[in-house]
Amino acid sequence: MDFFEVIHTQRSIRRFKPDPVPDDVIWKMIDAAIRAPSGSNLQPWVWLVVRDQAKREAVARAVRERLEAEGRLQEMRRNAEQLETASRRLSVRRAVELFENLAAAPVLIIPCLIGVTSPVSEARSLFAGSSIYGAVQNLMLAARALGVGTVLTTPNIYVEEMLVKEFHLPENAIPACIIPVGFPDGQRFGPTTRKPAETVTYWDDWGAAADRRD
């Protein structure tokens, strides 16, 4: 696929077919991920690929129980009905559906920061994320180019203790997100709808716009 077609059609996929994702596809995604830059080129990441059904179900159960216990799923359902557009309502409903059963995705990829020291040594800081989230985006764009759906989710912040125990993560490994992976089921890739670039771009000073000449 043309690079810009990938960019303009990559979107969050939250419904997946049960079909397995071939190993070579996963390897291509990860190989694309590790081409991303990182602080001081230290590449402080490990990609935990979870295909085992029992382990996926364990993650899914932990996420669902935690979100239900805190009332977050119920809140998302209520908020969805108050959104103005049908597309946004559908997006939130599908997010709820996904969090109710993450194991519906045939693969979960859990990117972990490990031993990060640049640009900061505090792995849980916003700036530490600059050494892995570019790689995460590479992985997701590669998936789109290969016809595979993904979505970046962060329920790992609620179930990190479970992830550490279930997957025997070392003390210095911090899960950065959870990426469900699979072939889309009933969802299409883009084109996506976004705010025009002119409305979110300033030149040389805050609030200073410039004419766009394509």
Quick overview of this protein structure:
The protein has a single domain (3-186), classed as NADH Oxidase (3-Layer(aba) Sandwich). Helices cover 40% and strands 11% of the residues.
**Architecture in CATH?**
3-Layer(aba) Sandwich
* CATH classification, class level: Alpha Beta
* Regions with little confidence, pLDDT below 50 for 5+ residues: none
Strand proportion = 5-15%
State the secondary-structure class. Answer: alpha+beta
Fraction of helical residues:
40-55%
Number of domains: 1
The tally of strands reads 5
Q: Which homologous superfamily in CATH is the superfamily?
A: NADH Oxidase
Q: Which overall shape is indicated by the principal axes computed on the Cα atoms?
A: globular
Largest sheet composition: 5 strands, antiparallel
Mean pLDDT comes to: 94
Oligomeric status of the shown chains?
Answer: single chain
Order of helices and strands: HHEHHHEHEHEE
Number of helices: 7
What radius of gyration results from the CA coordinates? 18 Å
Gap between N and C termini, in Å? 23 Å
